[in-house]
Design a protein that fits this description.
Keywords: Membrane, Transmembrane, Transmembrane helix. By secondary structure, the protein is mainly alpha-helical. It has helices at about 1-45, 50-70.
């Protein structure tokens, strides 16, 4: 009986730790894509001659950032 309680509590504790790790990883991934990968992709598009595609993407992201900053 004690073993069953121990196993159940172990799943509860490690389940909560796994959920915390997933939330932290998701937050780090969002920051990494926003701060590092998006500007690099836009710069590569401009250097590659795709200014006509990079500029609208930049404008859309800017508008979304302005609307999202009001919260």
């Amino acid at each position: 009986m004690l073993t069953l309680i121990f196993v159940i509590m172990m799943f509860v504790v490690f389940g909560k730790l796994i959920m915390l790790a997933i939330r932290a990883t998701w937050g780090i991934t969002k920051v990494l894509f926003t701060v590092v990968f998006l500007p690099v992709i836009l710069i590569c598009m401009v250097v590659g001659g795709l200014v006509s595609v990079a500029l609208p993407i930049l404008v859309v992201i800017g508008v979304v950032a302005l609307i999202g900053a009001e919260r």
